[in-house]
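Question: I have long wanted to understand how a fold can be written as C-alpha cells. Here is the record:
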Amino acid sequence: MALKDSWEQQKQQRQQAAIERRQKVHEALTVTQQERQEKASQLRSDLSLFRETLASDDRSRNLEFQHFYAELKTETQAFLLNIRNQRQAQAQKTAQQLNEFVQNLQQQTASFLAMTEAERLLMARQLADDLQSFQSTLEANVSSLRQDIQLELQDLQIETQLLLDQYRQQHIKTQIRSARNLIAFTANLRSSIQEYLLEVSETRQKETELLAQRLQKSRRDRSAKVQALFGQLAEFRLQIQQYHANLKTIVWGEEMALCPVISETQKSATIAPQSTPHLLLQKPIFSEASAQKIAPSQPSRAVDPQPKPAAPSKSAEDNYEEKVYQYIASMQGARLTEIESSLGISRFLAVDALRSLIQKGLVTQRDRVYRIQEDFTV
C-alpha cells in the first residue's frame, strides 16, 4: 500500500508539473501571439495612414492640376482670343512649365516609392527576425517538453513492469491456492461419491431382499392356486366318468356297463380316492360348454410346488435401458428418483439400467444427476 501511495503521489506531482509546464508554454505562446498581433496591427495602421496620406496627396495634386489646367485653358483661350500672335511663345513657355512640373512630380513619386520600399524592407526584416526568434524559443520549449515526457514514460514503464511482476506473483499464489482447493474438493467429492455408492448398494440389497420375499410369497400363492385348480379338475373328471357310466347303464343296461364302469372307477381312484356313492346316479354339475372350456386338450403334467422365478430376458433389460436413455435425453439430465417416479419402475431396475448405460459410455453422472454424453450419437 505504501508503494502504491508513493507511486500515486509521484504521479500526481508529475501531472501537476506537466500542467504547470503546459500553462507556462501556453502563457508564453499567448504573450508572443499578443505581441505579434500588436506589431501587425501597428504595421497595418502605419500602412493605412501612409496609404491615406498618399491618396490625399494624389487627390490634392490632381485637384491642383485640374485647377491649373482649367486656368491655363481659360488663359490660353483668352490668349487665343485676345492675342493670337503670342500663341507660339506662350505655348512654348507653358510646354516648358508642364515638362518641368512633370519631371518634378516624377522625381517626387520616385523618391516617395523608394522611401516606402526601404521602410517595408526594414519592417519585413524585423518581422522575420522576430518570427525566427519565436520559432527558436518554441522549438527549445517543445524539445524540453518532449524530453520530460520521455522521462515520464520511462518511469511509467518501470513502474508498470514492477506492478506486472507483483500481479504475476499474486496470480501464481492464487493458482496454487485454487489447486489446493481443487484437490480438497475432489477428495470431498470422492468421499461423497463413495458414501452415495454405499447407500445405493445398501438400498439395492434391501430391495433385493424385499423382492425375494415377494417372489417367495407369490410362488406360494401360485402353488396353492394350482393345487386348488387340479383338485377341481380331478372332481370334474370324476363327475364326467360317473356321467359316462350312468349313460352306459341307461343305454346298454347294467350288465354291459358293469366292466367298463369298474375299469373307469379303478382308473379314477388314483386321482380322487374318496368319492361319494350318490354321485353315480346324478348328472354332472357343470354343463357341456363349461366342460369343453375346462377340459385340457393335453395330458396334465406334474407341477413343481415352488417354481423358480423366470429371469428377466435381455430384450426386457434393453427396453428399460432404452426408456431410461430416452427420458434422460428428453429432460437433458435427471436424478434417480425422477427416473423412478416418471417411468414407474423400481430402483433396482433403474440402477441396473443406468449402470449398463454408464458402462456403454452413453450416460455420465455428475452431482447425482445423469446426463447424455455430448460427443456420442445414437
Notes: The helical segments are 2-82, 87-252, 258-269, 288-294, 314-331, 336-343, 347-360. The first strand starts at residue 363 and ends at 366. The two ends are 60 Å apart (CA to CA). Residues 87-252 form the longest helix (166 residues).
